[in-house]
Amino acid sequence: MVRKIVAILVCLTASHAAVVAQEKPTAVVFFGVYTQWYGFEKALPGYTLKVCNANSERVEDFPPVKDLLTSRFLVLSDVRGSEFTESQVKLIKSFVERGGGLLVTGGPFTYGLGDFKEKGLAELLPVELTEFDLKWENAGKPFVRAMDSPILEGIPLASPPMVYWIHKVAVKEGAQVVMRAGDDPLLVTGAYGKGKVAVFAGTPMGLPGSGQIPFWEWDGWPKLVQNLATYLAPEGGTQ
User: Fold this and answer.
1) Which residue from 94, 108, 138, 176 puts its CA 20 to 30 A from 122's CA?
2) Domain boundaries along the sequence of the chain
3) Nearest of 87, 82, 81, 83 to residue 68 by alpha carbon
4) Dist. CA 144–CA 150, nearest whole Å
5) Number of Cβ within a 10 Å radius of residue 24
6) In a 3-state reduction of DSSP, which class is residue 203?
7) pLDDT digits 0-9 by tens, 154-190
């Protein structure tokens, strides 16, 4: 009898663990060349991340419509607009317009260098893009708080990290600059339809100088990503 009770308890515990695992909110990461340095999987252990690799020609394993629309937010990380089909771009726009979140991060193959205007993705962003927007800052520029925001809650900026390659963007009317790199907009938020959009204009590239901490090795980076996820995810769960 005791053995049966123990066996039942073990089964119930395993079932409960499986249910908990299934209850993790999901997010979709469109994974470009430099995405690994952003450390999304390490920063977001509370999410099930659906990773869709971008191979310079197309996005592999684009999620089914139901899976996409039930995700909490999407990440476009160093991907080209030309890697998406026209119907996929329409789905991404619909996702955000209906209330989903969108985080876009920099890299050598995205933003102005990534056909965002030509493919219609620039419409989603709270910034204006130019074609050759990625610029090298040899000495690096520090992260600077530009406003009070829940995104920066618990983020240590007394000894700020550095960024060495920055997409030079212009802020659209109504958007908010949360952080700057020196004087340049670095983290900008805005809205598209019912959804929230965040643009990170830095890239995980460059060699730090003596005593400098590149942002992708900074101990505050995972917390910043977590805060962005909380900010972007629609209130009340999935759409």
Assistant:
1) 138
2) 26-232
3) 87
4) 15
5) 13
6) strand
7) 999 999 999 999 999 999 999 999 999 999 999 999 9
